[in-house]
Each structure stands twice: as structure tokens, then as C-alpha cells.
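Per-residue structure
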Amino acid sequence: MRFPEFSGEWIHCALGDISEVTKLAGFEFTQYVTYEDSGSIIALRGLNCKNGRLDLSDVKYIDNSNLSKLTRSKLYIGDILFTYVGTVGEVAIIEENDRYYLAPNVSRIRLNNGYNPYFVKQLLHTNRFYNKIILPLIATSSQPALSMENVRKFALQIPSISEQHKISSFLTLLDKRIATQIKIIEKLESLIKGLCQKLTQQGNPNTALNEALVCCSSTLQESSVQEAGDYPVYGATGVCGYTDAPEVDGDSILIIKDGASVGVTSYASGKYSAIGTLNRLVAKRGYSLRYLYYCLKVFNFAPYRTGLAIPHIYFRDYGKAKVWCPPIEEQKRITDSLLSVDREIAIEKSLLEQLYSQKRFLLQAMFI
């Protein structure tokens, strides 16, 4: 698929042939300050790259007294940020020349003249890049860290600069629509969190979680699930694969019990399986599972975390904590109030997935 006004072959090259791909030591984390003043500069970390854009909702500042030592870390308009540890493959583009400097755990791609950073960014979102560079790493490491050399060797096909501009302008419009959809979902999720806090914490805690819930575990590993099947398998990031033999038929609360997202809670229904990094909770008689799910959405798991490198939570610990459980009729009334917002979130997420699917189709049609 191609715009009709263009013709001719695309140039074959490697990413390293058209750019400088580098990660820098930058500065130590001890140099961060928690406030902004006239002498501070912004350090952009991996978590500032989110959903294909620069997220400045949580930035760190460093003192500029040693600025002369950070000249190689300075970021300029058109630089592409690329996360190479943790959640690898997140990208963002510097769109304004401000006080931005490169922090550890994020690499920089600085293109040569004649190349459009928005076009190259789209190439880093293709299935081919994911399957060739990221997927093998995730499959072999619990704490993936990309090799810059592998990123430099990634093979590209590049059209003329005018065609790069045309393609990137078109896809950027879709990216903006996706960003708007993400903001809609974020606002709804903020709303339901506030409602959960208000409605499930009206009274004093009177029921231990282990009095109302039963914890079930699984030995299923993500590496053993199928790419296709009749029933979903849930992992830390949602559906991580499929199976033809589901372990569960019914509703459950799923809680991540290991890793950086420990304590994140979701609700599952129907026939499915869950991998071993999740706790699966079901309600005892006399309690609404949905109501307890809303309680746990705003539950503070921090006091029950153990482990430094990889945090864990155990039901034997947080199950002793108490929440407010009114009579079952009141639990159902509160649940009905929150379900309407939850359903709206599900609709908006479905629309977001349609946009992602549309973009995946376009990327595949344009770049393969």
C-alpha cells in the first residue's frame, strides 16, 4: 500500500547506518532533586516514554552545576528516546528544545540529515521490529535489556524524504486519535477509582479479606501458553496467550503477586486460565465478588510487599487486612453503581483496541 504520487524503490539500510544509537551513563540517580528551580534541568527516564509519546507527568530534576559533564546527554529536537530495559521498546520524540537531558535506562536515536524521526519511530512500532528484536529477548530473560548493537543492526527500508513526511503525517494523525482515546480511558479510570474510595470506605473496616475470599493458585507458566486457542490465558499485562483447556469457569479477582506491577487488580469472567504470577480470588457465600474487587482496586498493598529486587505479595499476609463489608444487599447496590462506569471503560478500551488494530494493519501494509 502506497500513496499514488510516489514511485521507485525504497533504500535498504540498517538503523545504525542512518543514525547514532547510543545509551549514556549520564549521571547518578543520587544527583536527582525533587523540586524545580531556575537552575535545574529535566532528566528524561524510561518511564517518561509512554504510549509513543513523551509523558512529563512524573519527571526528575538535576542540578546544573555540573552541566559541563553532561554535554553528550543533551537532547535536541528530533531525538528519539528508546527504552532498552524493563518495559523495552517504548519510544518518544523530543519535539521542543528545552532543558531535557538523557537519564540512565533510556537510549537515544539521533538521525542523520534527510531522515524523518516520526517515520523512523513508526518503523520501531512494526511487528517485524517486535518479533526480531524484542520478542526473543522477552522469551529468554525475566529482566530484559536490549543490546544497542542489535538495535543498530535492525534492517530498514527507507523511501525519499518527501514520502517519509507524507507517511509520518498520515500516521501521526492516527497517533493523536489514539492519544485522545487513552486520555478518555485514563479519566474514566480516575473517576472509578475515586468512586471506589468513596463508596467502599464509607464505614469502618469490619471484615478480613480471608474471611470473604479464597485464594487459588496456578502453576501455569507464560512460556507454555499458545498463540491461538479458544480460551484466554491471563498474565501480568492482560491476555498473554490462549489455551484449549481452561482451568477456570466462573468469575475471579486476579491480582499480580510478583514484579513491578504487584498489586494491580483485574476481574475475569467465563472460561479462562491464569499464569502462576497471579493470585486468583473467589468469594465465599454471603459476599459479592464484584464488591470485593472494587475494594481491592483501592486497597493499599504497600505494607504487605516483600523482596527488594522483585517485590512479592502473599495472600497469607494481606488476607488478614480488613475492609468495610456492609450487608450483601448494600454490597450489590454499590456494585451496580460502579458497574456502569466499568462498562463505559470497557467500551472505550474496545475502541482503543480497534484503533491499535487499524494502525497495525497500516504499518504492516506500508512497511513490509
Remarks:
- The two ends are 9 Å apart (CA to CA).
- The first strand starts at residue 11 and ends at 14.
